[in-house]
Amino acid sequence: MNSKIDVKQLESEPSLSIVESFNQNVQSSEKIQVKAATGFHSNLRKIVAGLGFLAFFGCVWLQWGGHQAVLWDLSNRQFLIFGLTVWPQDLYLLSFALVISAFGLFAVTTLYGRVWCGYACPQSTWSWVFIWIENYVEGDRNKRRKLDKQPWSLSKFAKKSLKHLGWFTVAFFTGLTFVGYFTPIRELVADIISLDISLIALSWVMLFTVLTYLNAGWLREQVCLHMCPYARFQAVMFDSNTMVISYDEERGEPRTASKRKRNPEWVEGSQPAVGDCVDCTLCVQVCPTDIDIRDGLQYECISCGKCIDACNSVMDKMGFARGLISYTSENKLKHKASSFFSKRFLGYSTVLTIMVGCLTFGVLTLPTVDLEVDRGRGASLYRENYLGDIVNSYNLRVMNKTQTTQTFEVKVTGLDYKTVEGLEPVTLDVGEVSQLPVAVTVKLEKLSERVSPIQFEVWNVNDPDQNDVVESRFVAPVH
Questions:
Q1: What's the pLDDT tens digit per position in 188-225?
Q2: pLDDT digits (tens, 9 = 90+) for 436-472
Q3: What Rg value do the Cα atoms of the chain yield, rounded?
Q4: C-alpha span between 91 and 97 (Å, rounded)
Q5: Residues 347 and 430 grouped into a single domain
Q6: Which one of 31, 107, 293, 414 is CB 3.0 to 4.6 Å from 455, fit for a cystine?
Q7: Which regions span the lipid bilayer (predicted)?
Q8: Residue 467 forms beta bridges with which residues?
Q9: How far apart are CA 239 and CA 356, in angstroms?
Q10: What is the C-alpha separation between 328 and 452, in angstroms, rounded?
Q11: Do 225 and 196 contact (CB within 8 A), yes or no?
């Protein structure tokens, strides 16, 4: 047995083992029947999963400012997020948010390994729900195993049917809710009830229903073991201070099924020595990926903590101290000094803090009006009128990025111009865009350079602080 955390071994594991492991799993292993566990980590996981379910199924029904609070309205090319409207030209903020999420995951991984997978990952969360339904309908682990081996009967058919009906119900509401983030959920549900739903919307709902049903009901750990890349590159973020679930081999070995306690008078070097592990295998029975944590750190471990709860319950019954299986680091197992905040974590945290600050600043300063300026597409860069003045033409594009009708005004700055034609207040509906052809006339003697800077500014009449400024250029003949 080897309970030491060998990060280098994980990093050097050949990628071909994914295919080999999958083939062996499909050909030889039976369905993993997970035993229920209770304890601190199981309760924590239920709380996190409950909050995730509440957010997923609840946010889609919230209203904010007369609109659905969270709506990815692709048809109107806008994303509504609790009063914030993100338009296509602002998508860089969403991309930045995804990068921040990735760095946040990296930072957490350097501290506690793969806890995201065990507590908050949607695949794991929905799998726990499906396992709970299976346990409620068919019974605990032993009853489910016996039921699978029994020949088909009316009772077995009824239980299996009821289980799959429960799975499909959860999957359907999951698919419906997911699509509801892309089309108004209230209208979608009304269309389903009235049987007036479009074929496209129904197809998307059923697609995500089937995917949820397959992933959480049938594939389960296969997604974590063979489809999710995070299991393979997580070791790159581990170090000797990373807290991962480990078995204390020094304390637990040698194993024995005997119920007698360790001899309190036993000293090192004397025989026989009896470890605290009673070899009950509960840590294996509760594991959703069917690994034996006593064999050491394995990439299949999703750090859910179920083995910790199962082992602690046995230690309590035996009168032993808890922590035979626990979150610990390689340094602690080797009785070395261990620092919770490693240099790698501090590096990730520093970058993460800077990026969060930049994103916050970007969101707070996001303008509610957008202005784009294109120079006229005529044959020449400029023209002279009959008075000898220089005229440049521009095409202004003004967009209302608020969720109410607004009036905007535009002005020109940066040049001592003679006249400006085409600058009139414009009233725009939600998301509406207006094209303004503008002609700027400047006397030739006022121009000292061939190319001079010129600014166009647009602002909201009702809220002058909401403005946008775009710099362009004014072209004139050489003196």
A1: 999 999 999 999 999 999 999 999 999 999 999 899 88
A2: 999 999 998 888 889 999 999 999 988 888 888 999 9
A3: 32
A4: 10
A5: no
A6: 414
A7: 47-64, 91-112, 165-185, 197-216, 345-366
A8: 459
A9: 25
A10: 66
A11: no
